[in-house]
Amino acid sequence: LLFDNAKLTFLGYTAGTLLETSGKSVAYLAALDSGSAAVVTVGAAILDDAAEVSAAAGGEILVTLRFMALDAGTAAFTFLSGSAPFGSELHDASAAVLPAAWHGGTLGIM
Asked: Does the predicted TM-score (pTM) go above 0.85?
């Protein structure tokens, strides 16, 4: 996730409920990319190949990212395109890419 690091500082993440519904152990990663202070790398995985989850569109949260505002104005969020690890992809347990829509946005900072 690309963000405006002149307006925001990445603070961390909170696990959502989507993967937790599997009842299995879940691993999360949300950290600044080592090559850019304006890119957060996010990953989450259920640590059991047999676990499955399902969610209605828009019904569950995967992860919540926390930022601190540094300045007033607007700050854009953009999901990077291309294949992982440099892009936005959703995979199943066998590592097959699943169809997914990624939508960035703009945050108004007052």
From this structure: no
